[in-house]
Design goal:
Number of strands: 0
Radius of gyration: 18 Å
Strand content: under 5%
């Protein structure tokens, strides 16, 4: 899990660099193409067939996942890397919010007090990080980053459904990558493609590593959840925020005020607490696939 989080954080550095030359749809497309080729080779080596009996479930999972990933890439491009990483990892708090909402809907909210407290604490952390005022020029990107976490939470549920339907993890990753390619290409047809004459060599150099790092992160995460303790692995997933903060400060020169760090810490703590509490209710919740 720690290795997978490292791969995802490193991928995010590549997205940050490449976003100076490519728009979000282009990054989603290139990430998808590379991952499709990489995962297809892995599945062929393992003898796993690509044909699936539930194509519509994969289609819905791809739509939700691509929206989440595209929002995350946009947030990475316009926010400090550590901030964008933390907002995306709000997915654990969103899952807790869904549980609380469902309990209230069915009149069982009296047992959800601790979980509700983690949700409120998580959103308090978001307010501390984004400081939503009129002068805050990064507020829109922050809201998009928050939506990426919401989309990741929805993807949790769809990945859970695919697993219960008996779909191999590699096939799920393949069709998500294929969906990323198709959606990214559709977006490029709408927004246009960047002129390669104005693209920096650093951005070009990151295109293939972004897809490979994403694929490696997915496989590590899937392996961790398949063989390890769900609760332990879910908590170790937050190491991605530590890696993101390290990259943000030392490599990208981002600046985060003290209140932003405090908000980040509050989100991590609330996410850990929400994971412990929700594991009692949803013990088989899988990891998100970026």
């Amino acid at each position: 899990m720690v290795l997978g989080s490292f791969f995802f954080a490193t991928m995010a550095v590549g997205v940050k660099v490449a976003s100076a030359s490519f728009n979000t749809f282009e990054l989603v497309f290139y990430r998808g193409v590379v991952s499709v080729l990489f995962i297809a080779l892995v599945l062929r080596a393992r003898g796993t067939p690509l044909k699936t009996p539930i194509p519509m479930m994969h289609a819905w999972r791809s739509v939700v996942g691509v929206l989440s990933m595209g929002s995350w890439f946009y947030a990475i491009a316009h926010l400090p890397l550590a901030t964008a990483m933390t907002l995306n990892y709000m997915s654990g708090v969103w899952v807790a919010a869904f549980i609380v909402g469902g309990a209230m809907l069915y009149g069982r909210s009296e047992r959800q007090g601790p979980l509700m407290a983690t949700v409120l604490a998580g959103f308090a952390g978001v307010v501390m990080m984004l400081r939503p005022t009129i002068e805050q020029n990064q507020l829109f990107a922050g809201l998009i980053g928050l939506l990426s976490g919401l989309g990741a939470a929805l993807a949790y549920m769809q990945v859970t459904a695919l697993g219960k339907a008996g779909e191999p993890e590699g096939r799920t990753v393949f069709y998500f990558s294929l969906g990323s390619t198709v959606c990214g290409l559709a977006g490029i047809a709408w927004t246009g493609m960047s002129s390669w004459s104005s693209v920096s060599w650093q951005a070009i150099a990151w295109l293939v590593p972004i897809g490979i790092l994403a694929s490696l992160g997915q496989w590590c995460m899937t392996r961790a959840y398949s063989c390890g303790s769900t609760l332990l692995v879910a908590n170790l997933q937050y190491s991605g925020i530590v890696f993101g903060a390290f990259y943000s400060l030392l490599l990208l020169g981002d600046s985060i005020p003290l209140i932003g760090w405090a908000g980040m810490a509050l989100i991590v703590v609330s996410g850990l607490a929400a994971t412990v509490l929700r594991t009692r209710i949803l013990p088989d919740t899988p990891a998100e696939v970026h």
